[in-house]
Design brief:
The structure holds 2 protein chains of 2 kinds.
Chain A lengths: L25 E10 L2 E11 L4 E5 L6 H8 L10 E4 L2 E2 L5 H6 L2 E4 L11 H13 L3 H6 L5 H18 L15 H13 L5 E5 L7 H17 L3 E5 L3 H7 L2 E6 L2 E6 L1 H5 L2 H8 L3
Chain B lengths: L9 H4 L6 H10 L1 H9 L2 H26 L7 H19 L3 H19 L9 H17 L7 H4 L4 E2 L4 E4 L2 E4 L2 H23 L2 H18 L4 H27 L1 E2 L6 H14 L4 H25 L7 H15 L4 H14 L5
Antiparallel strand pairs in B: 1-4, 2-3
Helix pairs in contact in B: 3-9, 4-9, 4-11, 4-12, 4-13, 5-6, 5-7, 5-11, 6-11, 10-11, 12-13, 13-14
The chains are: A alpha/beta, B mainly alpha.
InterPro entries (chain B): ABC_transp_permease, LivM-like
Subcellular location (chain B): Cell membrane
Protein name (chain B): Branched-chain amino acid ABC transporter permease
Chain lengths: ~280, ~350
Amino acid sequence: MSGQHAPPPETGLRTGPPIDPSVAALGCQSVTKTFGAITAVDDVSIGIDQGEWVSIVGPNGAGKTTLLNVLNGFYDPDTGGNIYLSGEDVTTEPSYKRARKGLGRTFQGLELFEDEDVLENIMTTRAVKQRPNLLSALLFYVGGGRRTEAENMRRVEEILDYLELWEYRHSTIGSLPLGIQRRVDLARSLALEPDVLLLDEAMSGLTFDEKYDMVRFLADLHEKEGLTLVMIEHDLEVVTDVSQRMIVLDQGAIIARGEPDSVVDDPEVQRIYTGVE
Amino acid sequence: MPSGEYFTSYEDRMGLLRWRIEYVAFALGLPIPLLAPFVMTGQLVSVFTLVFIFIIGVLGLHVMLSYAGEIVLAQGVFMGIGAYTASRIINELALGILPAMLIAGLVTAFIALVFGLPAWRVKGFYVAISTLALQFIAIQFFFRRSEFAVIHGGTQQSLPSNIGLVTDVITIGSATEEYFFAFVVMVVFAVLTMNLSRTGIGRMFRALHENDLSAQVLGINRFRNKLMAYAIGGFMVGVSGALYAIYIGFITPEFYSIDITLLQYVMLLLGGMGRVWGVILGVTTVELLNHYLLETLINAFPEATALEPVFFGVIIIVVLIVEPKGIMAALGQLKEYLRKWPYAY
């Protein structure tokens, strides 16, 4: 795919003023990811400021999820690119370390722990936050394990209340509708208390009401908690309503970025979405 | 939640006993294993001692397989390592049962951890093969060779019939003493395993089992947790091996063949994976089935005792066809039926 698209102009909307990735809440510099002959992400540099809500959009196969996977360490970038989290170069760090440093993530395909109930799913990531000690876990009553678990459960119940999931706490994942599963996915990542949350099509497959609820929760998290959100989303109406900035990917490369209202009016963006020249 | 009962704190919600009915069941059930050896035949006391010892070993497998999702095919050799280590500690250093169990557990945990190292690069069946290799290398070669006697202490070893808990203090010798000692150790390990399950480490093990890719993205260190599961499971199996050696009073590599590994899988699957009570039920059922099947054949068809494994195998297959998730799942369905009775739903 690399090289098939025209290079963006040096100035103006198509390149925008990128925030220096090395000082951003989350950023990447010159990141490329190839799979054999396919270039899924092509020399991408982005910087997302603390407290921003940024949406990444683009047609299917544009490289959005791959970019997210590179940012959170699921994939290693090809040689030369760098990933930054809160100003720290985390390129060589595995995904679990990035998560512990405050990079949360939800999944397009959900990837919930299917055999567990809602409470256990969220308690699992809460456990990561607490870094449990083996001895205190084994001894439980005398080693502080009980106290830690009670604190975790208290916090998880707060998250369940916040996301209006209380009635589902003992439901197994498979028995829940998609809208609730997406909310559980969000709850699970919130239990880690992330600074930056990557949302991979968190509203995909949801009804209008479910989307509305999800946007309401995310807007609350963004405004009241100051959470930095990076969202992949196909629904341009939602994107333009909630995002402060928008990045458009096509064939692995950034073709536009900036304020949503300006970006959606860009002829190149309209072309890739409508196919009309 | 039973009607009229409420949790008033998060701590209450995490208890091993949570409902009034559980407290009543515990109070009524506890005296049974404590009084049983005084009313059972000596043979049955021995069978239950063996049940307790195997429960500890299968709990180790339970941690590695049911929690962490690692197929381990070296239960036999892990028990053997525990047995040979304990034998040396008891025979040569005379430190007693408790230090022997502890050191046997630690040595086995270390070996299990080393053979779990391939989990860094591969998973599932490929790691299982590395443990299977250990099973054959150790049992078919290492423990049978006198050249390695300096390490294992001799291919065949005997243990004294009376051994102190620590050095020669409080000796364990009679069948009843062995029964109570094995029971206490089993209860300790069962509670430790339940504790592991209801805390963060158990949850992280299960998360890796269910979906290791998303677990890692959510902050779980796959390699470290897998190795921890190997070490914890290995420790338990090593302790079980040490107790098995003390129980039989003699060790030889034949006792620790792949057969014991497969038997422990049968115990785990029959009881039902994922629950400590499943392990307890599975081991008890298999050992009692073996015992009564053999006794029946000896009484009814003394010339056909060699067919015992055939009958045993058929019964296990039938049970698993009827309820593939094991006895615990069947009991769960029965409980649900009784809860709704006399209504259908």
